[in-house]
Every structure is written in C-alpha cells, then in structure tokens.
C-alpha cells in the first residue's frame, strides 16, 4: 500500500474515530483508491499524534489536505447535517 493510501486510511480512521480497520476490512482498488468494507465506530482517538509526528510529517499533511479537498469534506458534512435536520423535522411532523 502506498504511503498516500496509508495516510488516507489513517486520516479516515482518526477523523471518524473508526476501529477494527485491519487488513481484512480495507484494501485498494486497481486504480489506487482506498476501499473500506467494514469498520466499527470507536470512542477514542488512540495514538493519532504518534502517527502524524512520525515519518514524513510534511508529506502526510500534504496528503491530508488533498484528501479534505477531493472529498469535499466540509460540503459533505453540511449536507449530512441538513439531511439529518430535515429528517428530524419530518419525523416530528409525522408524530404530531
């Protein structure tokens, strides 16, 4: 697995507090994109500092910035929040 894909893996794992991301739960598509097929939501960020401070820190930060941009993370979080709010309002109307 390339350093870039490993950085994406760690970024997703730490950002979304995912556990159980062992080698049987993720892989890489032929085109090099990360594929996560199973995970468990955790309750601890673990040793994120150790990962981000070790090795080529600048390269990992560069990849992280690229990931956030290409994933349109801010836009997706806003859309998810709006969707949840809309669903909550609809459920409240339905139960009235």
Commentary on this structure:
With 96 residues, the chain is mainly alpha-helical. The chain has one domain (3-71). It has 4 helices and 4 strands, in the order αββββααα. The chain has helices at residues 3-15, 48-53, 57-71, 73-95, and strands spanning 18-19, 26-28, 34-36, 40-41. Strands 1-4 form a two-stranded antiparallel ribbon. The radius of gyration is 17 Å and the shape is elongated. It starts with a helix and ends with a helix.
Protein traits:
single chain, 96 residues, mainly alpha, two-stranded antiparallel ribbon, two-stranded antiparallel sheet, 4 helices, 4 strands
Summarize the model shown:
This protein has 96 residues and is mostly helical. It has helices at residues 3-15, 48-53, 57-71, 73-95; strands at residues 18-19, 26-28, 34-36, 40-41. The protein is elongated.
């Amino acid at each position: 697995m390339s350093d870039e894909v490993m950085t994406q893996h760690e970024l997703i794992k730490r950002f979304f507090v995912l556990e159980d991301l062992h080698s049987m739960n993720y892989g890489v598509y032929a085109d090099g994109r990360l594929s996560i097929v199973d995970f468990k939501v955790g309750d601890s960020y673990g040793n994120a500092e150790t990962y981000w401070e070790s090795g080529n820190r600048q390269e990992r930060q560069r990849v992280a910035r690229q990931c956030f941009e290409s994933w349109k993370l801010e836009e997706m979080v806003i859309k998810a929040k709006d969707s949840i709010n809309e669903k909550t309002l609809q459920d409240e109307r339905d139960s009235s």
